[in-house]
Amino acid sequence: MTQIKICGIRTSHDADVVNQTQPDFAGFVFAAGKHQIELAQAKRLRAEIDAQIPTVGVFVDAQLAEMVMAVDSGAINFVQLHGHESEGLVKQLQDHRIPVINMVGKQVRPTIAEYVMVDAGKGSGQQLNWSAIRPTNQSLVLAGGLNPTNLEQAIQTVHPDMIDLSSGVETDGEKDMVKLREVVTLAHKRS
Ligand SMILES: O=C(O)c1ccccc1N[C@@H]1O[C@H](COP(=O)(O)O)[C@@H](O)[C@H]1O
Fold first, then answer.
1. How much is the pTM?
2. What phi and psi values does residue 32 have, to the nearest 5 degrees?
3. Long-range contacts formed by 106-114: CB under 8 A, 24+ apart
4. CATH number, domain at 16?
5. Count of domains for the chain
6. Which residue range forms the structural domain that includes residue 99?
7. How far is the CA of 94 from the centre of ligand 1 (A)?
8. Can you tell me the ipTM of this complex?
9. 160 lines ligand 1 (CB under 6 A)
10. Residues 33-73: pLDDT tens digits?
């Protein structure tokens, strides 16, 4: 089984699709871009999403205080760093007992974060060269251009602990129930 995070939850429709398909994590993007939402909206959506599903806040080069406030508000359980953040900032978040997903670029490098993530872009649907990703003992999250068509090959090539999808499971900018069902089933399938 591979854990699966669905990112870029923006609307009640998206929250409903999450509840009906049961991924392992749901993500809210606080950074600029087409998936960005405000903290108030994240809090409303958190209340709509199944309480058993942890939520992740995606930040790009944000201040520590903003991220701690988002966790303290109850909107998110994890912080995902998706910019050029330092290991010092990862440590500061962990000192606040906040688990961290650290997006380190297109190639794996060591981090003290709970998860190391590789991605080709920022929710743009760009795909990585999977066969170039080095194996790691860290908990690895694979993101970038994953969709129902390429997911199985991505998992078989990279063997990530978690996969992270956003634009590849959307239709007209909203999460698509059929696509989500397909990717959650694929991820949770025993290999
Ligand atoms: O989705 C965004 O708008 C975004 C903005 C800034 C930083 C990260 C962002 N998204 C992250 O990128 C992955 C992969 O997205 P995709 O599947 O390639 O569309 C997404 O899951 C978020 O973690």
1. 0.97
2. -60, 145
3. 107/132, 107/133, 107/134, 108/133, 108/134, 108/136, 108/138, 108/140, 110/138, 111/87, 111/138, 112/87, 113/81, 114/78, 114/139
4. 3.20.20.70
5. 1
6. 3-189
7. 23
8. 0.97
9. no
10. 999 999 999 999 999 999 999 999 999 999 999 999 999 99
